[in-house]
């Protein structure tokens, strides 16, 4: 078997690409969140929390995500985490894109349409996550909180992330957020999906395909 570069390295790692990829990834991430919300079959733990908060606050879902991101950023201070362009863009772009997508997406009619919208949203979330992470312009507020806590406590990323996700899921559920099939599907699928798509989007990394000689 011979290998072929799917994207030549010079086309993949130039600085002109990184910012557009970051912004596109974040916009798609917000869209994927809206798709999961419209499906009404359960969302990821952080969005359960956002959804629960939005039920008690007279502001849009997008603004809730932005305010939550800002509060999480304040928690970076004692953890000595440093934000990047991607960190700030994460707060702003996702908040705007999720509100726009929610305004444009109609509610699905019937269980089949709900499941299709949910699955599509989870897959798109994996693509979007790989795109904005692969741009390497700074972690999102919640990602930085996870890595900062892991660095300061010495606990593994796995346990820190699990603890955070369980905590926000529990609080969000108590506030009225939707927990269901989508929550379980997201928890099981998002890691493998992001890992699968990441090589295609990581700046400076070549993607190779196998082909017969």
Shape: globular
Secondary-structure element pattern, one letter each: EHHHHHHHHHHE
Count the beta strands: 2
Largest sheet: 2 strands, antiparallel
Largest sheet strand order: 1-2
Low-confidence stretches: 1-13, 206-213
The number of domains is: 1
Tell me the radius of gyration: 18 Å
Work out the strand percent: under 5%
Amino-to-carboxy terminus distance? 6 Å
Counting helices, strands and paired strands, the structural category is mainly alpha
- Output mean pLDDT: 86
Q: How many separate helices?
A: 10
Helix fraction by DSSP (H/I, runs of at least 4): over 70%
Characterization of the model:
Helices cover 73% and strands 4% of the residues. With 213 residues, the protein is mostly helical. It has a two-stranded antiparallel ribbon.
In short:
The protein has 213 residues and is mainly alpha-helical. The chain has ten helices and two strands; from the N terminus they run βααααααααααβ.
Q: How would the blueprint of this fold be written?
A:
Blueprint: E1 2-5, H1 9-13, H2 15-39, H3 45-54, H4 61-74, H5 76-79, H6 85-104, H7 111-134, H8 141-153, H9 157-175, H10 181-201, E2 208-211
Antiparallel strand pairs: 1-2
Structural descriptors:
single chain; mainly alpha; two-stranded antiparallel sheet; 2 strands; globular; disordered N terminus; disordered C terminus
